[in-house]
Amino acid sequence: MQSDQYSYIPILMQFILAVGFVVGTIIISGKLGPKRTSEVKDKNFECGIESVGNARIPFSVKYFLVAILFVLFDVEVIFLYPWAVNFKDLGIEGMLKMVVFMALLLVGFFYIIKKRALDWE
């Protein structure tokens, strides 16, 4: 093998170790896990409170929209950290690119405010 192919050996070893750990954990839990079941053990509960009603209650779309918007803006803010660390090295070009990025972020934020996506009813 060539020398640059040897650099992939640690990645292959980590992949084999990760897959082996997952498969081993599944096999061991099947062999060592509890085997006796009963109505009381199989009963669902949450925080010590007996469950009442159906668990398939539909959620409002508003709930999922707020969650997706939170993740979207959270991921976009993550891009600010590498920029802040390398601020001096990026120069004026990096500053202009970040101004454009922040402008797009603010346009999206004002759009969802205008559409009243964050208003909870």
From TrEMBL:
Gene3D superfamilies for this protein: NADH:ubiquinone/plastoquinone oxidoreductase, chain 3
GO MF annotation: an example: quinone binding
Catalytic activity: a quinone + NADH + 5 H(+)(in) = a quinol + NAD(+) + 4 H(+)(out)
Gene Ontology, cellular component aspect: NADH dehydrogenase complex; plasma membrane
Enzyme Commission (EC) number: 7.1.1.-
Short name of one Pfam family: Oxidored_q4
Alphabetically ordered keywords of this record: Cell membrane, Membrane, NAD, Quinone, Translocase, Transmembrane, Transmembrane helix, Transport
Segments crossing the lipid bilayer: 6-28, 63-83, 95-113
Keyword Zinc among record annotations: no
Keyword Transmembrane helix appears in the UniProt entry: yes
Protein's cellular compartments: Cell membrane; Membrane
Leading EC class: translocase
Membrane topology: Multi-pass membrane protein
Function according to Swiss-Prot or TrEMBL: NDH-1 shuttles electrons from NADH, via FMN and iron-sulfur (Fe-S) centers, to quinones in the respiratory chain. The immediate electron acceptor for the enzyme in this species is believed to be a menaquinone. Couples the redox reaction to proton translocation (for every two electrons transferred, four hydrogen ions are translocated across the cytoplasmic membrane), and thus conserves the redox energy in a proton gradient.
Subunit structure and binding partners: NDH-1 is composed of 14 different subunits. Subunits NuoA, H, J, K, L, M, N constitute the membrane sector of the complex.
Record family assignment: Belongs to the complex I subunit 3 family.
Protein name, UniProt field: NADH-quinone oxidoreductase subunit A
